[in-house]
Amino acid sequence: MSNDDKLIDFSAERGKRIHDLHDKKLDEMRQAFEQALPLPKGKKSGKDKSKKR
Fold first, then answer.
1. What residue spans define the domains of the chain?
2. Which 8-state DSSP code applies to residue 42?
3. For 2-26, what is the mean pLDDT?
4. Which of 6, 26, 45, 53 sits at 20 to 30 Å (Cα–Cα) from 33?
5. In the chain, which ranges are continuous DSSP H helix?
6. What is the model's pLDDT at position 1?
7. How far apart are CA 39 and CA 33, in angstroms?
8. CA distances from 53 to 9, 44, 50 (A)
9. CA 38/CA 30 separation, integer angstroms
């Protein structure tokens, strides 16, 4: 068997698939949180506290 070019490292390929699955789940969770708790866009609406002297 001299076809070393076509050998596949199954553990590396599995690691890539697992990583892709985790990224997909993370994106789904991020989208769900953004829908439930939308982040305010633009300038901060909080008042500036004056320093105590």
1. 9-36
2. S
3. 85
4. 45
5. 10-36
6. 47
7. 9
8. 66, 25, 9
9. 11
Amino acid identity for residue 47 in this structure: K
Token pair listed for 11: 């553990």
* Encoded amino acid at 26, one letter: L
Does the CA dihedral 14-16-17-23 come out positive or negative?
A: positive
- Is the pTM here over 0.85, yes or no? no
Residue linked to tokens 């789904």? 28
Torsion of CA 19, 23, 24, 28, to 10 degrees: 150
Q: Which amino acid is at 40?
A: P
Record the tokens describing residue 40, joined without a space.
């305010």
